[in-house]
């Protein structure tokens, strides 16, 4: 006769002491009322209804499910800092843990229902017993009625979601891969779910006025972070892990001004600048070399900036560095000049790459004609520039990435798009096609731009781009 093995003896379990009956009874009494102060709608609540209306109109008669997501495990029983899924935040203005937005068809449209955790209870002990959800462990979360007032959406307790979705005959679409528990509640419709995911991404392609304000706030905060870096840079030249000092200075500003960084800060000194996504940031910043800083503040509403500047660590460019920097700046200017509503999305990339390729030919690095270099079937110039020259920007640093190609990379620009233009030149330290003096130099210049009918608005204009202006700005902020 077999029995289930007792595996609990092989694990320590909680390191906290057990809760006695006497303690539980004592903890359940004598708590003062503590409603959220100054409760009122979040700023996004004036804009989210029209976004939900667009979703409702696109999928009439179907139930639609958009989860906020779950915590991501970092190690053992500790988790990464929680961030709600971008589609959920865009439609609700909320960052509630494990919440789920349900569009319930009602015959003439949809009722939006926010399924969420209620406030943790003092009476049943959840507030102090539950290390994951209890407010004495993780902080105060709003009650269901408070959530309804904050986000302007009807609320129900999350523990009713399974019953709501069980046995439903209503055709349902789910934003999948966000909350495993939600995925198991509804049978998949792969093509329908993929279409839903794409649409939620495409819904963010054109930003409303509130979103533009949030992005400008993120850009302005990022500008302050770059100033912080310029201020400390002279003091960390030659210091071990000087790149980490720069990362810390910028990331400190991101936490003060907003929610966090919008992506892992890239701090590439010297040859590290040739690694497009260098985030180890373990290097020394050496006098006479360049520093590539790619960073963005994510504000509390989760919108992020994405700006890159390449700075001379000693404060002034060498003649060779200046020539290469000006080539990249010319490429960026050529790309920016193409931006306007109705232009093809790829136009700015091709304009920038044509400038880069011409410069490489003039330098004798590329030994071919410009026409051959720009032939998509050849593309040899990409050895030295490698990646695309920009992307949509918003509540994700690479916003709208699940959109269909015809609506994004193969489509046309529209007023209200916000994107980056970021050509680069990456001359690898071991590239034998290059003369030795060019090896190990990486340069990228990246700015955030709002598309208009007439052209574009340079949202990050407070950070200089011209070489002389960069040097003057560094001297001004060096303290």
Main sheet attributes: strand count, strand direction, barrel closure: 5 strands, mixed
* Oligomer category: single chain
What is the rounded Rg?
26 Å
**What is the total number of structural domains?**
2
Q: What is the compact description of this entry?
A:
The protein is α+β, with helices and mostly antiparallel strands. It has 15 helices and 17 strands.
Describe this entry's structure for a reader:
By secondary structure, the protein is α+β, with helices and mostly antiparallel strands. It has two domains: 187 residues, Creatine Amidinohydrolase, Chain A, domain 1; 269 residues, Creatinase/methionine aminopeptidase superfamily (Creatine Amidinohydrolase, Alpha-Beta Complex), CATH 3.90.230. Helices cover 33% and strands 15% of the residues. It is built from 15 helices and 17 strands. The strands form six sheets. It has a five-stranded mixed beta sheet with strand order 6-5-4-1-7. Strands 9-10-12 form a three-stranded antiparallel beta sheet. Strands 13-16-17 form a three-stranded antiparallel beta sheet. Strand 2 and strand 3 form a beta hairpin. The longest helix is centred in the middle third of the chain and has 28 residues. The protein is globular and about 80 Å long.
Can you lay out the helices and strands and say which pair or pack?
Elements: H1 21-27, H2 48-58, E1 63-67, E2 73-75, E3 78-79, H3 86-92, E4 100-105, E5 110-116, H4 126-129, H5 135-138, H6 144-151, E6 154-157, H7 161-165, E7 172-174, H8 180-185, H9 190-202, H10 209-236, H11 242-257, E8 260-261, E9 266-269, E10 290-295, E11 297-298, E12 307-312, H12 319-337, H13 347-362, H14 370-374, E13 418-421, E14 424-427, E15 441-444, E16 447-451, E17 456-458, H15 467-477
